[in-house]
Amino acid sequence: MPSGPCGEKVRGVAITYFKSLSAAGFAATAISYGPGRMGFGLFVPEFRSAFSMSSSTVGLVSSLGFFGFFVGLLIAQAMLTRRGPEVPVLAGLVAATVGMATVAASPNLTVLAIGVLLTASSAGFAWTPFNDAVHRKVRDIDRPSALSEISTGTSVGIAAAGAAALVMVLTGVSWRYCWALFALAGALALAGNWAALRKVERSPEATPKDGWRDLLHLAVLPLYAIAFVYGTTSAIYISFAADRVREAGGVPGVPVAMAPSLIFIFYGVFGLAGLMTKRVKSAIGLPWLLRALMAAGALSVVLMAILPSRWVGLVPSAGLQGIYVMMTSAVLAFWSERRFPALPSLSFTAALLAMAAGSVIGPAIAGLAADAFGTAAMLLAAAALPAATALLLRDQHAQERPVAEAQGTRG
Question: Most CB contacts within 10 A, which of 119, 214, 289, 377?
Answer without folding.
Answer: 119
